[in-house]
Amino acid sequence: MVIHLATPISVLVERISARRQCPKCGKIYNLLFHPPKKKGVCDLDGTGLIRRADDTVEIVRERLNSYEHLTAPVIAHYAGTDYHPIPANRPPSEVFRDIEGIVKSRI
Q: How many whole angstroms separate alpha carbon 18 and alpha carbon 13?
């Protein structure tokens, strides 16, 4: 069984490029879904947050294009078998429900 969490590249770019990290403690924030309490600083230690060099929109697009190119043959290989693409651009509870339904149907 193959479960593919399918998310549009535009959504992944938006999510990844909104990631910020505390260089001191390593805590990761997302400006869209889990922002710090005070803009630009870590909730735990007050250190200024940074964006990783590889989280710029341009680099994220390049990484995702490489990923798509490398995984397309794998997806094509499994698409004819017990393959289940799950739209992952939804609330986690909905994604979980779909995966759980697929797995439970196999038990």
A: 8
26-75 pLDDT, tens digit each: 999 999 989 999 999 999 999 999 999 999 999 999 999 998 899 889 88
Q: Domains, the chain, ranges and CATH?
A: 2-106 (3.40.50.300)
User: Can you list the alpha helix ranges (DSSP code H) found in the chain?
Assistant: 9-17, 57-78, 92-106
Longest distance between any two alpha carbons in the chain, whole Å? 51
How does pLDDT run across 30-43, given as a tens digit for each residue? Answer: 999 899 999 999 99
CB atoms within 10 A of CB 54: 10
21, β-bridge pairs: 28, 50
